Amino acid sequence: MLPFISSLIRKKEFQDFAGVCRGIYRVVDGVNQPQLIKDNLIDQFKQEKQTTPINEKRETIKKPEQEQQQPTPQIQNKINEQIKDTHQRKGKEQDQQSNDQQSQIPSPPPINKQFTENKVPQTAIGRVYEFGALGVSLATNAMKTMVTQQNVSFRQALVSEENASLLAKGLCKMRGAPLKLAQALSIQEDEVIPKHIRQAFEQARQNADIMPQKQLEKMLKQELGSDWTSKFKEFELKPFAAASIGQVHEAITTQGRRVAVKIQYPGVKEAIDSDLNNLKRLMEYTNLFPKTMFLDKLIANTRKELHEECDYKIEAAKQINYRKLFGNQSEFAIPEVLSDLSTTRILTAEYLYGDTIDFAAENYPQHLRNEIGRRVMSLTLQELFKFRTMQTDPNPSNFYFDRHKNKLILLDFGAVHEYTKPFMDNYIGVIYAATILDRKECLQRSVDLGFLTGEESIRMKEAHVDSIICVGEPFRHQGEFDFGEQQMTKKIYELMPVMLKYRMRPPPPEIYSLHRKLSGAYLMNMRLKTKVNCRDIFMNLYEQYIKLQ
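Given the sequence above, the corresponding structure tokens read:
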């Protein structure tokens, strides 16, 4: 087959293909490859029966009636309040207007997400095999594309739609570090990552596979004990959400409290280092990303984050701290952690629910969308300039809006970062400089932060400052900034080629997580098409920050 292909394509492209294959097999170097392939094919055949879409009615484990404890009147009242369809507003006219508009909002569709059930590869050999098999499949598909299409380079063929879909499925099956890195890359610009690959990462972000029931119950027994069912009155065996590190199940405790139980996938914590090393090799051999993306730094940052996020006791402590930080602000709601039902690999918290950002974008009136956007921006800037502590995962599924209680619900505190005062002094300085169009100060603060060395070309310096001016536009604009009509994205896209070409150093490590959240806050507002007075929010916090100096 290979001689036939080589006769149809350019010699250089065939050498590229051969080099990729050699690189991929280096990923599985040191492993008994024939036996590995045989064992994994047998394992894959066994899994086919359980690798099926899950879309049926969810199964629920219930305690026998005689064992169930009835909830106290106080708890029952709390449950009833959650489904109560009222929404208080200040003033009779405003209250009537709000109720009239909300009555026109349709009920959100029931949660009926289709998941694919797939056993999580746990052994080092099994996970290495998955990387090798994925790489070979990508390279083979690229060669097929080159055979059927003229004037297509190997790299262009590598980022085809078919390969993008294949990559997404592979990442969803692997979960853990590969999927987490893909999620971080999914918000990058098309100039940084090929469009089809970025879309594949976005698809993977939203559609992680779930554990088979046998694997799920094994995790529950390991973490909560063999009598884990006695700790719940009801437990939904099918999750309502699945992400890179774990999946989330709805349950009711023996006290009658509705909770969300996040369960970590087995083996993902132990495989972080080897997974990222293998993923790095795969990316390098396929040459998907530009060198100025500084993949080493990105992976090192992801590695550090993942080791923290895989300890749910650390996440629980961060979530408890966030409730303290924002506990006196009635416009936010953060679930209470149930420590007695939480371990290093299981996190149980109060179940809060509301409308998704996507549902709000499609169905909410303008004033409600504006309010959500204002709160997202207020939250983000308070995290930075008031508390210097930020939840850095901008995934829209971490935000819900309870329109009946008028609260923005905040979820998932695994990726919480703290920033030093010297770093934040410079960062708030560069944002303020952008609001007053002080280009010289923007440049100096960028050098102080470590964005630039100061030795870059004039063209690079100008492009960098222009990008800061673009990012600062919402905070410079007088009155409500219209995110639905913004031109920031277009302007930054135009600057990206220059910055990618002439960048001399990677951004400071704090920036990877910080800008991930800031860009996510902007994107949510763009999705909601909000109009928000960002300048007032920023200037109020800036004045408070300066007073504390």
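The longest strand covers residues 246-253. Try to locate this feature in the token string yourself.
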